[in-house]
Amino acid sequence: MTDAEQMIHHDRLSADLAQQLASIAALLAATGNAVSEASTDMRQARIDAMAQQVNTRDQLARFNLRRRKVEAALTRFEAGAYGLCCECRAEISGERLDHDAAEVFCEECADEREAP
Ligand SMILES: [Zn+2]
């Protein structure tokens, strides 16, 4: 991988991280408003609130999972190990990194993990 390619991936990861953090902040801010907008029917309001909570928790979990993956990739950058498979240390193909700059495994190791 060239330095220029590394820079592109690094920029992409930084932007991705900022986006996840913004999404998490927006979600947490919205959670506070959700209750006051509940309907006057108390039973329905409780059901709505519970559904909302589950939904918010799922979304938060997804954003946090992605955030951790991106942070781990940025950490590998600092360690000079970016673009190397975390399993076998082989270089991850540019195609895979273009698809997801936070990719952790080379194609071979990813296939092995997906195999039953
Ligand atoms: Zn590998």
Layout: helices, strands, pairs:
Layout (H helix, E strand, L loop, with lengths): L2 H32 L7 H37 L15 H6 L7 H8 L2
The protein binds zinc ion.
Plain-language structure description:
- The chain is 72% helix and 0% strand.
- The protein has helices spanning 3-34, 42-78, 94-99, 107-114.
- The mean pLDDT is 91.
- The protein binds zinc ion.
- Zinc ion binds next to helix 4.
- Zinc ion binds at residues 85, 87-88, 90, 105-106, 108-109.
Cα shape: elongated
Q: Determine the N-to-C terminus distance.
A: 32 Å
Poorly predicted parts: none
Radius of gyration equals 19 Å
Secondary-structure element order, N to C? HHHH
Number of helices: 4
**What portion of residues is helical?**
over 70%
Described by strand count, sense and barrel closure, the largest sheet is: none
Ligands (ions, cofactors included): zinc ion
The count of β-strands is 0
Sheet/helix structural class: mainly alpha
Mean pLDDT: 91
> Percent of residues in beta strands?
under 5%
Task: Tag the structure with descriptive keywords.
116 residues; 72% helix; 0% strand; binds zinc ion
What is the structure about, briefly put?
The protein is an all-alpha fold and 116 residues long. It has a domain of 80 residues. The protein is built from four helices and no strands.
